[in-house]
Amino acid sequence: MIDAEGLLDAARREADPVAAARLLAEAFLALSRTADPAALAPVVTRLAALRPRPPHPEVDFLFHTLAGVVRVRAGREHAERDLDIALRLFTEHGLAGDPLYVECAMTATLTAIRPHLVRPTFADLVRDIAERPEVDGGRRTRLTTMLGMGDAWSGDLLRGRAELRRAYHHAVDADRLDLQAEIVSWLVKVEALCGDLAESSRQLAAARELAARSGSVWVAAHIAECAAALHLASGDVEAWAASSTTSSGRRWVATPVSCTSTGGSSPPTTRCAATATRRANCSRGRLTRRCAGRSPRPCRPGGPGSPSPRTRR
After folding, report:
1. Span 4-286 CATH architecture
2. Is the pTM of this model over 0.70?
């Protein structure tokens, strides 16, 4: 298990701004599967203080990535601007050879709701990084998880499920309960939309247990959202309605719209309740084919860098 506090302490002692920024980014990634936005914000504040004049592209890339993630999770303004700047810097300055920067760019891509770009942009890079003996199990797990999320969210449920299952085995090998909790929470949704309601139910129970054991505020906060997918796929609209109402009072649900397992552009994740209600009669037998009607713009899925369900500004 990576010691986030140790990384933060090392960053305080580091004189080189690039090296210090890297340590802060690693600490942020280590905390991001358990902490809430309030706990992550101080890391971004420290990273902002490291930005040199003139700007350094690597420090700026890390700052804009982490700032965008925190803004999105907290529902604050200018998140998309930060993420766009981060992804531009990643491309313009050729940062794709560094595992840390690849992970940050994948996080920015998913947080910016561009899951269809994850596999074509990052699959080869992830494969190369995963084969490097110096890469730790936590990074290997997070990269594989995001690849699977991109697949599932952009419509390829079976491929996404396979990647997420592979990521779970990486998390077990790395003894990372926090990553196991996150992965099984996504599998609740994906298994339900693939039509395996028994497995989805099993994953929901596992997600609750792992979130409690790991102390993951991040996963615990969207357990109800995970359950919504299973309830709706099971045809239990009352349970779906109860589990899809967040603490803010707005409903975000998992709807079987665009449920194709081999393609499509809509995610197997959350959608606004008005659309879900209109299509709530999708039965288990229809989960493996596209439901009728146009797919709406997706709400946020709660991905690695994604927020608790709020409206993007």
Report:
1. Alpha Horseshoe (1.25)
2. yes
